[in-house]
Amino acid sequence: MNENYTLANGVKIPKLGLGTWMIDNDKVVEVVKQAIDLGYRHIDTAQAYQNEEGVGRGVRESGIAREELFLTTKLAAEIKTYEEAKQAIDESLQKMGTDYIDLMLIHSPQPWMEFGEEDRFFDGNVEAWRALEDAYETGKLRAIGVSNFIETDLENLFEHGTIQPMVNQVLAHISNTPFDLIQYAQDKGILVEAYSPIAHGAVLDNEDLIEMAKRYGVSVAQLCIRYDLQLGLLPLPKTQTYEHLRSNQKLDFTISDEDMETLKHVEKIKDYGEARVMPVFGGKLK
What we know:
This protein has helices spanning 25-38, 52-61, 82-96, 122-137, 151-160, 179-187, 207-216, 220-230, 242-247, 257-264; strands at residues 4-6, 12-14, 18-19, 42-44, 70-75, 103-106, 144-147, 167-171, 191-195, 234-236. By secondary structure, it is an alpha/beta fold. Helix 2 (52-61) runs parallel beside helix 3 and helix 4 (122-137) crosses helix 5. It starts with a strand and ends in a 22-residue tail after the last helix.
């Protein structure tokens, strides 16, 4: 909990973050306060989550100085013009009640309704990225990056942007780890963050993982989070329960090289349960 990664621009980012997807705005206040009380210093939200205001309130009510916390939010995936992005950045600052955001990402290279389709929205991503660059240069953002970007999307920003993305946040967990994309980003000096490190709960009943976790005296969730850390990723487990907030941070064990190889080759997950309708889990919104 006291360890950091260092981004390409020198900014320190806590190695473990709290994800807040699907936590209502009114409920997220107490979750954030509990997490901070337990030692979390990195909170991840997004415009699409509609809980930025609650996250910001939780931070203010936590009693911890703002500069000791790391706040991430994400530009809505549908925003693909400079002016809309510029306005949205200021709206996030206002909603969260903070003078600066530590990290802001483009949530997806494609609007959610178009996710996985042929159009990569190259021009729109350059425009949105330009707005993030400007906000970074003026101090509104301490770091900037992207989410759900594949190699060709990153190359577009390398070619047409001024600042290289510092982070790429992707779906990465046991049974679904994009090794080639991770290696590509890491080779470029980009930190890869792992959202849904526990596969939205879909791997918790995997008998092989249950048996391995027992050998280490940990839960399957802890095994999953530790797996991402040992790949050099920054996991963002999401939970609303105090007990899970507490257990998810107890990661003082090491998965053996042999077991890591086994975990890398777990059969790819086929069904994310209730989350399967979401584009990042294989669903379509139209």
